[in-house]
Here is the input.
Amino acid sequence: MKHSVTKKAIALMTAVLLFASVWVPVFAVGGTSAPVIIIPDMMEIRYFQNPNTLGDTGREVFSMKSDRMTSALTSVLSGLSVSSENVSKGSAQVAGAIDEIFANIQLDENGEPVNSKVGVINFNRPVAHNVTEYIFDEEVMAFVDAAAANVTSEEIFYFNYDWRIDPKTNGILLRDFIDYVKRDTGSARVSLVARGYGGVVANAYAYYETDHAKQSLASFILLDSLVTGSSLIGSVMSYRVVRTVTDSVEDLGSLLEIGDVYKSLQGEDIGAALARYLGQDPAGILSGVFGNILGTSNYSKLIAMIVLSGAASIIQGEGLFAKFGSGYREILLQADQYVYSKGLRNYLRNMPGLWAVVPQEYYQAAISFLFGTEEISPALLEKIEHGREIMDHTEITLNTLMSNGVNLDVVAGYNMQILPITAQINEQSDGFQATRYAGIGARTGDIDKNLRTEQRCANGNHNHMEPKRAVDAATCFLPESTWFLRGHRHCEYSEPTTAAFVAWLVFSEEQRTVWQHEMYPQYIDVSLVDGTLSPYSHYSEGDTQNFRYGDIDFDGEVTAGDARLALRYAVGLDKITSRYVDILGNVDGKGAITAADARLILRYAVGLERRFPVEQ
Here is the structure.
């Protein structure tokens, strides 16, 4: 009798706790109305002379997306072409263009800005108050609209940073900015949406200010992130576009050097890669022509795509890809004489921010190439090591956040040709960032090849293979909470459906998974015409045999959190959007998820039940 009374008391107590957790959501870590801080990619950062005193965007001195940058890069390519006939003339043109690009943002040998008056604008106000500034672009506006049901533009902020400098410094500045947002909004927590290099800044904050992050974050969203490095930047920093066999032996003790592999690539290979890169965004490439003729409608984009595809077929039939690729290859092979030796080496090596995204496998080669026998100043080396330390501890840092209730989601693009300037010309990417890095451990095949084998997920006996076997997400750090957008370009989230997907990730009471929503499976297709999203991978109900009844948050365990979710579904506080949840949450076998199912799941979680009725 005494044992029976004890069981009843425990059951009553757990039921009370369960109902309390549903009806008092204010105590949940992941709040649906936490203010949001957008941390942009490095591509979006603009540098100004006296940025916080002039209030004048006309004094811009550096931006990767500016017309000035485009003009300078065109001059570099032109100079490389000229150099084949006139070395001194071509070399001078390349050197001048490099100086034009980097001179204003140069760092000294200690990793400090040479011109202390050049920097970024500090936006110490909500986005709503910055509508006249450049940050209120299509990406931000799309998110503001998508987030309207949860927060206003008064609760969305934009953290600007200097990507050149020590990432630890940026992490501390982000901590201070988070404190400001919390004071300004009166909120106990905020959500971070970090795009591209912005993920490095957010990761630095979470690593160096772990206790602060555990207490301050609701959601932590990494979009096309560089937190574990970038093969493109690593290749450029280590000079993997071309290296001699002698250097290979001295630096790596091996003849199989990636740069030498690039040398062995034929013009046909490189030409095809370059053609894919130029042709994967036809609407963007031909926007000037078709915009003037037909306007900017989806109809004009469709015509642009058809025309470019037809032109590509003709060019390929004439064999011009191979000829063009051979010329492009020769231009890249001249990089040492006409690009690196004329200043690029000195600009790159003093930037701790770039060192923070050089993957481990490129690091020693990069140090050897950029410094050679020269000593690195202690001040610069310390900043470089900060970046290495942050990167090396990424999984530990993210695990710590998740174990303290922070919702953490990862999004990566794939099926895009990476910028073909390195040996990895066929690497799966979003056009800039390799998918294997953005997915934090994803296994990928080349863009024109498929994976032959698949791995089983450690969280259950199921797989995470992309329908055409281009990506295997089972190897990711977060296989259940990593999404892949097919045909997605780096850090482009300006379409309403794309922004809505990001908002769905951000504003969640619980950790999101790839099984929760029919419209958001692990692999999602991005329309080439209008950028809209649609499910690319579909699952059958038979797949549920690989999951556990009661585990409706898909973390591999049945816990009180699952019971809480079940009760929220039962009373209508959350809407069921996936048949997986419907099947696995119906543990009494009587149909729809009810409070009875929630109670059974909780009893199972605390050890009062060993099997669910539906299994008996």
User: Anything to note?
Assistant: The radius of gyration is 26 Å. Confidence is low (pLDDT under 50) at residues 23-31, 242-258, 282-296.
